Amino acid sequence: MQIGTIISLIVYFAAMLGIGVYAWAKSTDDSEGYLLGGRQLPPAVAALSAGASDMSGWLILGLPGALYASGLVEAWIGIGLFIGAFANWILVAPRLRQQTAELDDSLTIPEFLSRRFPSQAITLRVISALIIVVFFSVYTAAGLVGGGKLFDTSFAGLFGSLPQDLGGSDYGFGVWITAGVVLAYTMFGGFLAVSLTDFVQGCIMVVALVLMPIVATMGEGGIGPMSHALTSIDPNFLSITHGLTVLGFLSAITWGLGYFGQPHIIVRFMAIRSLPEVATARNIGMTWMGVAMLGSLGIGIAGRAFVERNGIPMEDPETIFIVLADLLFHPLITGFLLAALLAAIMSTISSQLLVASSSLTEDFYRLFFRKQASEREMVTVGRICVLLVAVVAALLAMDPNSEVLGLVSNAWAGFGAAFGPLILLSLTWKRMTAAGAVSGLVIGAAVVILWIALGWNESFLGGEGIYEIIPGFFAAMIAIVGVSLAGKAPEPRAKPLTQDPLET
User: Fold this and answer.
1) Nearest to 193 by CA among 69, 325, 15
2) Which parts of 311-403 fold into alpha helices (H)?
3) Which Pfam families does the annotation name (predicted)?
4) Per the count of CB atoms within 10 A, which of 234, 291, 386, 453 is most buried?
5) Long-range pairs for 208-211: beta carbons < 8 A, 24 or more residues apart
């Protein structure tokens, strides 16, 4: 590892910590400021924050690795995600921004659900908070695995002699240093720090995702020689349909269903400065996502051609971005590119830590222990909860054989099935009942966990596996509709919500 690369990474870490200090001075005096930035995010910050917190290390590690190993057919995951993200901005964003503000200024998703269905308020808050904490521990661990892989691949034994409590290896050190920097700015700066760092990190990510495939392609002499190299490996490598089965297509494209239930993404909708600015944020966010997704696909494709033509050994396909950064660029640029990878990882981890912390703080501590706690006390408790979740996630991430995409897919499905149908219907269907909400939440999460435990996501009835979000999402949807229609219609609210923002 060249000294220039290390300098670039140090500058990046210092910038993120500086933003945390700025946010600490700006907006951490009360819970709304610490957890939602006072609902004052400009559209561009909200859009890139939502995108960066969504596009974690899997965008630069997991997805390119899948393309590298299996070819262009893996692009269906990206296509499904793009469609799902667009639908999320259309169906959820404006309604959630409006209704959370009207329902007594709800600060968390569990709090919103409890006020939307007051007869089951405590049950909904407790179950949804438990699901958030459990799945986010796994999801955050996936991000820390990415940080560990970066240090393990790039630093070549530099930290291998560290004491065991500091990781004992390059991988372990990478896990802890990634967690430590994220903790520093998240604990002190809260939601504003997370959102501002996400904005900066989103800008860094998109530059890297555009730069890397262009340079790798030109290094192969252009698109023609690159395509020839790939088809010589496998004539169908660049086919988007070869070998694609119906179940494989559904398992890939239905990743998009997960967007409706990702608390760390949809909480950004709650924080946008005003309802009319949601459309502006959507346009910025979807443009950013389209460019980033194409760059990610390009890294996997161009990287495979470069590695094959140059005879470079490649043990872990998920490290292709790191390998190309080391081989193709000046050390200072390499440091910038590795900072982009850290940006992808850290932007998601910080968002997940804050959402998990908000659930522990608002939906457990305030609800059961200190109902009259002061705002300053709640902010302090929130910081402690951020630390606790980060430590648990770091311990889960200590296995260097973990796969980023696999961990993300499990957590993504858990949130998508548990919260996706619940959020969609609670925002759009007045006939939905509290009992239906509880049943959907429980059944969606339970089906996903059971599906994974039985291994049916790998092999179903002796054949191809089915992605767990499919049975989980639709089981939850059926449960909500069935239980709601079987019960008594809910009483009209004393203070009805205003007109649907898409109908005005």
Assistant:
1) 15
2) 320-328, 331-360, 375-396
3) SSF
4) 386
5) 208/60, 208/295, 208/336, 208/337, 208/340, 208/341, 209/59, 209/60, 209/291, 209/292, 209/294, 209/295, 209/296, 209/298, 209/299, 209/340, 210/291, 210/295, 211/337
Domains of the chain: 3-486 (1.20.1730.10)
- 322-372 confidence digits (pLDDT tens): 888 888 888 878 888 887 777 777 777 877 787 788 778 877 787 777 777
Contact 301, 89 (CB under 8 A): no
Question: CA–CA separation, 58 vs 142, rounded Å?
Answer: 9
Q: What digits encode the pLDDT tens for the residues 138-180?
A: 778 877 887 787 777 766 555 554 444 444 467 888 888 888 8
Among residues 416, 404, 16, which one has the least CA distance to residue 196?
16
Q: Name the β-bridge partners of 132.
A: none
CB 41 within 8 Å of CB 367? no
Prediction pTM value: 0.81
- Measure CA 299 to chain center: 20
Query: Which regions of the chain are under pLDDT 70?
Result: 1-2, 4-5, 23-39, 56-57, 154-169, 188-192, 219-221, 401-405, 493-504
DSSP code of residue 272: B
State both tokens at 397: 């991430």
Residue with structure tokens 């509290």? Answer: 434
Position 478: which residue type? Answer: I
